[in-house]
Amino acid sequence: MTIKVNGEPQKVASDPLTVAKLLEISRVESPEMVSIQVNGEFVERGSYPTTVLKEQDEVDFLYFMGGGTR
Amino acid sequence: MTGFATKAVHGALLKPDAHGTLRPPVYDNVAFEFKDSHDIQLAFEGRKPAHSYSRVSNPTVDEFEQRVRLLSDALGVIAVSSGMAAISNVIMALAEAGTNVVTTRWVFGNTYSLFAETFKAWGLETRFIDMSDYRALAGAIDGNTCAVFFEVITNPQLQVVDVAEVTRIAHERNVPVVLDGTVTTPYLFRSKDYGVDVEIISSTKYISGGATSMGGLIIDNGLFRWKNHPKLEPAAKKYGPQTLLATLRREVYRNMGACQSPHNAFLQTLGLETLSLRIDKSSANALAVARWLEQQSKVASVNYPRLDSYAGKRLANRQFPRGVGGILTFDLDSRAECFAFQDALRLVRRATNINDNKTLVLHPSSTIFCEYSDADKTAMGVRDTMLRLSVGIEEPEDIIEDLQKGLGAI
Q1: Rounded to two decimals, what is the model's pTM?
Q2: Closest in A60, A65, A69 to B51, CB measured
Q3: End of a domain among B272, B303, B320?
Q4: CATH number (domain holding residue A15)
Q5: To the nearest whole angstrom, how far is the Cα of B97 from the nearest Cα of chain A?
Q6: Segment B207-238, tens digit of pLDDT
Q7: How many structural domains comprise chain B?
Q8: B256 and B400 both lie in a single domain
Q9: Beta strands B301-303 and A41-42: pairing type?
């Protein structure tokens, strides 16, 4: 399956691929600080394990530096 | 780690220091370098956790913000250049022309000016009410209300309102509550527990550690569902609970430039470490001074929320079990007596600040409120016979001895 992660196309094998799994395999920096959007819409942290990604989805890992966000 | 002082002292280090220092250095810099073009692009897009420019974020300011977040159990914190910057940034994020803010008629003088003059010129209406009149509050909120704003203990009137009741009324109408918690800080009052959505603080006061530096804090408690806020609803789809913080960090705060200097953030992080000690001491001193003033025949009245004579004492005790801070007011017979009293003081300083380590005295009517008419001052609860004391952390006997000199001069 091909998805876009932070604007870059990526082939990902996992099936089904959840946001939680993508977060794990992407090895993002400071995962506790990241905020995730799928196709431009915010995903609640509690929904990461149940949000299943599909072909051509666009996922963004975003940080609001400073501010002690969590 | 559950105690306030423990959290204040130890905080949460984001990254280990290269030298293992227990006191992280001051990153008193402007710019940050990146390893390649792609890296800096990711940082600008918010796709990499990196500082790029200190007007937007800085490691020393970040550490201060993290420490405050830990103490307030908030969703996120943004440190700004002053308390007024905290108010103006939040209101600019929430409001637009044609909307209104409901606030107390007893806000701090410069805050009143901000709403009644500065924001009015940009099309924001402000509805000044008696915040303890909960029916009036409910009646003042309408479909265009973008926020309810008030102070946890008004300055200098020292009015205390039922914060949980205010938030209940506002939330029933899907309106966020913004509270100025400068005089209590998260040590005396955890606003999140009372349903407050956003707390702003002038960290110049108690938090700075003794009037060391200017600063302000925006604390988003993470309670409000921003999809219910007309202006922020589009952003809520993208940012969810982070909507206000993202709007500030990526637009209002970034663009207005009211950032906190790293040096001030360093001083204020130090201030946090002794905050509870200083608040406990000044609160105990203020109560001792207030009780002493009540016994003096030349003093017409004393106002302090811990006194038996304070009308809302039961509510104040319930809402602020640890204390009510160091500010009290008292009345003499005239402005002339107030001036004679102030001029006779030798230890207590004549200065317009609060929650310094030093005890300060001020005649609000001729200073903070000097630009207002007598009628306006009456409406704002500011009397020409009133003096404000911000009681510091000296020995109470020395403060009282100096006040005796003041009374001896009238």
Answers
A1: 0.95
A2: A65
A3: B272
A4: 3.10.20.30
A5: 27
A6: 999 999 999 999 999 999 999 999 999 999 99
A7: 2
A8: no
A9: unpaired
